[in-house]
Structures are given as C-alpha cells and as structure tokens.
Amino acid sequence: MKSKFLKRTATGVLFVIILVGCILYGPLSFSVLFTIITALNVYEFAHIVNKKGDVEINKTITTVGGIYLYLAFMAFCQLNMDARVFLPYPALLLYLMISELYLRKKNPIGNWAYSMLSQLYIALPFALLNILAFQRDIPESDINYNPILPLSIFIFIWLNDTGAYCIGSLFGKHRLFERISPKKSWEGSIGGGILAIASSFIFSSYFHFLSIGQWMGLALIVVVFGTWGDLIESLMKRQLGIKDSGNILPGHGGMLDRFDSAMGAIPAAVVYLYILTLFG
C-alpha cells in the first residue's frame, strides 16, 4: 500500500512538473508537449474501443488526424497561416468514411462513430488550447504567447480535484452521480469548486488581463465543465467495461484518466473567453 502511494505521488509530481514546465518555458515546448499528449490520448482511445470486440477503428489514421488538427490550429493561431491549413483535415475524415466501403468490417457505423468521436472528444479540445495560448489585441499586432491562460485551466482542475477528494473523503454523504461515479459527492464537488474559485483571486492579483470577476467566472466554468468531463469519461469506461483507460502513468491509469476533466473544460473556457470579448 505504501509502495503504491509513493508510486502514485512520484508520478503525479513528475506529471505536474513536466506539464507546468513545458507550458511556461515557451511556445515550442508547449506545442511539442500537447502534440504528444494529443497523439497519446487519441491512440489510447482507439485502443480501448477496439477491445470492445465489434468495433475496429484505424488507430494510426485517427492518431494522425488528431495530430494534424492540433498542428493546424497551432499554425493558424501561432504562425498566422490562413484557414487553408485546415483543408487536409476534412480529406482525412472523408478517407475514414470512404474506407469502410471497402474494408468489409462487421460494424462500419460503429467504426465511423468512434473514429469521429476520437476527433471531436479528444483532438479538438487539445487543439483549442492554441486559442488560449496565442493571442493578439489588434489585427496588425504581433502574436503573443500567453502561458497563463492554458496553465490556469489545469491549475483550476487540479485544485478542484484535490479539494473534491479531500473534502469528499471527510464529509461526503450525498452522491453527486451515483449511477456513473459512486465515489463522487456533492460535498466534495462544492468544496473543490470553492478551492478552485478562491485561487482565482491569486490569478487576478498578478495577471490583470482579466478582471477578478472574469477570473472567478473562468474558474467556475472550468469546475463545472471539468466535472462533467470527468463524468463523461467515467460513463464511457462503464460502457466499455474497463476500470482505467490505460496504464501509461503508474498509479494514475491512462492518459484519458488524467485529461478527462480538461477535455470538458477547455472548449467551455474558449467559448466563455470569446463571449467576454464580445461584451468587453
């Protein structure tokens, strides 16, 4: 038991160091890190759905598609390339659709559905991180790398998860979503949310590109949609009959297990921040 706890702690610390370090170091390390993370998550998803038995999606092509979508968003946001950079991506999706006409697999509709889900559910949220990281104030200005916005998403998620676990373990009595995740409680979720939102006051003290109210709103969005993202992955694992999505992270499971909340929170944060620009 002690050995398992130490392994889990060491993996968690290393995970945080790598993620925070690569985000803060610069745009190149940021891009390399999340290209790899996108690839590993899409590949892991394809691997676990193929184990279902009646589904057989192309792990290589879906992974390449996820990588390309991330790189296309990077080129569009960071390198200021025009929208034509996205054109090969729908061609790849068409290949996944058309290829089923000739492969004679037993469940082509299931293959189509899971292939497209790998792009919408996993690749797109990571690609959207580029919108958070690379911005410019006016059309003629240079593109600026802002590591704080993408980093804040992960910090809010980690604080929410930590607070939910600690407070839920001590005071949790009312189940949040017992059918899907029996261990989660309302008390833990509320406690984790309060901790994450409280940290937004620190962000607002040092980073003034958002007001204190906007930082609090961002934290709330991340908490709510991050929790839904966690529950979505739990539902998926229940449907597939697995406990963990993989074992790449000792003591923590798979990549999807570590980034499930982020895949719900990132798109919601992008929409929230876009709405702020409309009314700002």
Inertia-based shape: globular
User: What is the correct CATH architecture of the largest domain?
Assistant: Orthogonal Bundle
Could you give a short account of the major beta sheet? 2 strands, antiparallel
Distance between the termini: 52 Å
Strand order of the largest sheet: 1-2
Tally of individual domains: 2
Estimated helix fraction: over 70%
Q: Give the CATH level 1 class of the largest domain.
A: Mainly Alpha
CATH topology of the largest domain: Tetracycline Repressor, domain 2
DSSP summary, beta strand count:
4
Order of helices and strands: HHHHHEEHEEHHH
Number of helices: 9
Mean pLDDT across all amino acids: 90
Strand content: under 5%
Low-confidence stretches: none
Computed structural class: mainly alpha
How large, in whole angstroms, is the Cα Rg? 19 Å
Quick summary of this structure?
With 280 residues, the chain is mostly helical.
What does this structure look like?
- The protein has 280 residues and is mainly alpha-helical.
- The strands form 2 sheets. The protein has a two-stranded antiparallel sheet.
- Helix 1 crosses helix 2 and helix 3 runs parallel beside helix 5.
